[in-house]
Design goal:
Blueprint (H helix, E strand, L loop, with lengths): L7 H9 L5 H6 L6 H9 L2 H10 L6 E5 L5 H8 L3 E5 L9 H11 L4 E3 L13 E7 L8 H11 E15 L4 H8 L3 H4 L5 E2 H10 L3 E6 L5 H4 L4 H16 L1 H8 L2 H14 L5 E8 L2
Helix pairs in contact: 3-5, 7-10, 12-13
């Protein structure tokens, strides 16, 4: 590889060309055909859990921040929402061009806006939902981005930001960057302290309702499935109650939730995923 950094599109294309990275490509929804990929996300446990979390706000008017290939925009549109996909990258692989192609093939309506989140070209109180999947940690200015989100949300509207990379201390950032599959190619990854996210959200005038921990929901721990997480819970319980009873006990959602929170709070893995749900009072 050259010492010169690649574009995001070039980095993803490189990843797609690596024979040993195809599982990662699929997990990241970077494979093709894009319409089938979008349907796979729409059917995923991650999306079903997200819909359950914000169900009372659907259908509504949605801003999909950093929409990427448009898979989340597609899912919101299929749920009956009016969707604006905000994506500054024009790429036909990972940006606005891909979104345009996806919605032409699907027949769903969507508005595509090429702009950054720190300067949203919308009037105050325009959206019922602002959604970002792995977006806040890419902010050029996190407090400014959150303030813009707060400005364009309607009263009672929500911000839902998922799969945001968190570090425990600033020294952990380089560890995360060194371990990231694509950062060495394009140099665009980042992670923040948990307090930095929550402070930026609150200073934007939003009321933080939930900070969803890494193993607390499939929203964060996908591509691991709920079934796989249940098996992991069962294996942990077997040390205390024995193999005979562990599977039955682990089948209870309350037990899985408790165990997920327990192991989340023990983890200090640099770049672990959090999700945030906030409302505009």
């Amino acid at each position: 590889m050259s010492d010169k950094l690649l574009t995001w599109e070039e980095a993803v294309q490189w990843l797609r060309e690596q024979p040993d990275k195809q599982e990662l490509v699929r997990h990241c929804y970077y494979d093709d055909p894009l319409l089938i990929v979008a349907e796979r996300f729409n059917a995923s446990e991650e999306w079903q859990a997200l819909k359950a979390l914000v169900g009372q706000h659907i259908p509504s008017k949605v801003l999909d921040l950093g929409a990427g290939r448009g898979i989340s925009s597609y899912a919101f549109a299929k749920a009956g929402c009016s969707v604006v996909a905000l994506e500054p990258d024009p790429s036909c692989l990972v940006g606005a061009g891909a979104i345009q192609s996806l919605f032409e093939k699907s027949g769903l309506a969507i508005e595509i806006v090429q702009e950054y989140g720190e300067s949203l070209p919308f009037q105050d109180e325009t959206f019922d939902i602002v959604y970002g999947r792995a977006v806040l940690h890419h902010a050029r200015n996190l407090p400014m981005l959150c303030k813009e989100v707060g400005r364009v949300l309607k009263r009672g509207g929500i911000l839902i930001a998922t799969r945001e990379h968190v570090i425990s201390k600033k020294e952990d950032l380089q560890i995360f960057l060194n371990n990231h599959a694509l950062h060495f190619l394009y140099g665009g990854e980042n992670a923040y302290l948990l307090d930095e996210y929550t402070q930026a959200i609150r200073e934007a005038g939003l009321r933080l309702q939930q900070s969803i921990e890494p193993m607390e929901s499939v929203i964060n721990y996908a591509p691991m499935t709920r079934s796989q997480f249940q098996m992991m819970t069962s294996a942990a319980l077997a040390h205390f109650v024995g193999q005979r009873f562990s599977h039955t006990i682990a089948s209870y959602q309350a037990i899985q939730h408790f165990y997920g929170r327990y192991i989340s709070r023990k983890s200090e893995t640099p770049g672990r995923h959090y999700a945030f749900l906030a409302v505009k009072p």
